[in-house]
Amino acid sequence: MALGFYVNMDHCIGCRTCQVACKDRHDLQNVGVRPRRVESYEAGAYPDVAMYHATISCNHCDDPACIKGCPTGAMHKADDGTVVHDDSRCVLCKMCMTTCPYGAPQHDPVKDMIVKCDGCKDLRDAGHEPN
What we know:
Layout: H1 17-25, E1 37-45, E2 48-56, H2 65-69, E3 75-77, E4 83-85, H3 95-99, E5 106-108, E6 113-115, H4 121-125
């Protein structure tokens, strides 16, 4: 099963509200850790210039490198295919961070724990859609 977020990039203005909402959902109060990131890119040359934005999070890969790199099984796939992190099994070796080519798992120094996008799994499990 493929999982993902649908984002109409024609409407994205790079406001980073999705980034803030994700941080709020995960109760991340410190600067730096962002399970959902918005990257902005400039293109062209004066006077024909443009700016593009891309929202990036965990890709919930079919064959996740972060799971292969995790020695304790803290990073694993849920039954629905979501790549999730079990804080109780994590030893903070950060191998999931090292092996993920997308930078999805991140260390939160305030919580001293690995955080990543979980596809709003709790909302989906309750029958709601992420927004």
